[in-house]
Write a structure and sequence with these properties.
Strand content: under 5%
Helix content: over 70%
Number of strands: 0
Largest sheet: none
Structural class: mainly alpha
Low-confidence stretches: none
Number of helices: 2
Radius of gyration: 25 Å
Shape: elongated
Mean pLDDT: 85
Order of helices and strands: HH
Length: 67
């Protein structure tokens, strides 16, 4: 069963009444910052993995040149 537009509007209205607009805005901001930090962390890990792979490839080249 899919939620229709009226059902979504009622849920949003109930959330506004319970928590207030300011509280919901701050929760949304915090969630957005958390997602942003998570993405930055993933990019940092990807960069570190690329560095490790580059070092491994360079090490293999040195070993094969020495043989």
């Amino acid at each position: 069963m899919a939620a229709g537009p009226w059902q979504i509007a009622i849920v949003v209205l109930i959330l506004l009444v319970l928590f207030g607009a300011g509280r919901i805005a701050s929760l949304g901001k915090g969630l957005g910052e958390g997602i942003s930090n998570f993405k930055k962390g993933l990019k940092g890990i990807e960069g570190e993995l690329e560095e490790v792979e580059t070092k491994k490839v360079r090490g293999k080249r040195r070993k094969s040149a020495a043989v």
